[in-house]
Amino acid sequence: QQPVQSPQAVILREGEDAVINCSSSKALYSVHWYRQKHGEAPVFLMILLKGGEQKGHDKISASFNEKKQQSSLYLTASQLSYSGTYFCGTGHFKAAGNKLTFGGGTRVLVKP
Amino acid sequence: DVKVTQSSRYLVKRTGEKVFLECVQDMDHENMFWYRQDPGLGLRLIYFSYDVKMKEKGDIPEGYSVSREKKERFSLILESASTNQTSMYLCASQLMGGGNGYTFGSGTRLTVV
User: Which of A36, A55, B66, B104 is the residue whose CA sits 20 to 30 A from A46?
Assistant: First the structure.
């Protein structure tokens, strides 16, 4: 079952903050976050593992709540380059072929 | 610069044709994946492979098969293309281990007419 992302879309002004949530109905081992710009391949942002800590990448950070089976991505002081569609991918097994199930995506538009 | 290369960016095929989508990675990654991407549905896993000649079904394998004869190459085969297989197809590779992200190719937009 696909994880559920919310919101489906968000419009920001440069410098504003946003939170994207990713919820799973199954126990999580890992959560990946990717950003895809129009016409391009998804680009890996970060991975959170069960028992791990909050991660950060420039002004983009993420948390992982094992009990709630969800992860949140935080866009802080957003920049124009943050525009794109963000996908979470959830992994449920610590196995060699750790396949991911992706959410439907959250479209982010940052305006000047 | 590490790469996942998909052989075609755009492809138009006729209903009933056998279609081959090729993916090559130069990173010596063990794991490779095929996803299809449709608006509003995100990325859905078709097949994946964690070793040469090994393959496992993903969430939507019907109408597809795969081949991995060499570590660097993972092919997706549409046995008899249908219009509902019109989609963007993304290949990805991953270094084995739970802490590594995927590297995606640029995708192949397939239209079946």
Answer: B66
Which residue in B has a C-alpha nearest to residue A93's C-alpha? B98
Q: Count of CB contacts below 8 A, A vs B?
A: 68
Contacts of B100 in chain A (CB under 8 A): 47
DSSP assignment of B12-62, as one string? EE-TT--EEE-EEESS--SEEEEEEEETTTEEEEEEEESSTT--EE-S--T
Q: How many domains are contained in chain B?
A: 1
Summarize the confidence of residues B26-43 as an average pLDDT: 92
- As a whole number, mean pLDDT of residues B58-79 equals 96
At residue B36, φ and ψ (nearest 5 deg) are: -115, 145
CA separation for the pair A74, B89 (Å, rounded): 29
Residues constituting chain B: 113
Give A4-93's CATH code, choosing from 3.40.1010.10, 2.60.40.10, 3.40.50.1000, 3.40.190.10.
2.60.40.10
Q: Where are the domains of chain A?
A: 4-93
Tell me how far apart the alpha carbons of residues B94 and B79 are, in angstroms, rounded to a whole number. 26
Buried b (16+ CB within 10 A) or exposed e, B17-36: eebebbbbbeeebbbbbbbb
> Among all residues of chain A, which has the CA nearest to that of B101?
A44
Which member of A98, A99, A105 has the closest CB to residue B58? A99
Mean pLDDT by 10 residues, chain A (112 residues): 94 97 91 93 90 72 89 95 96 71 95 96
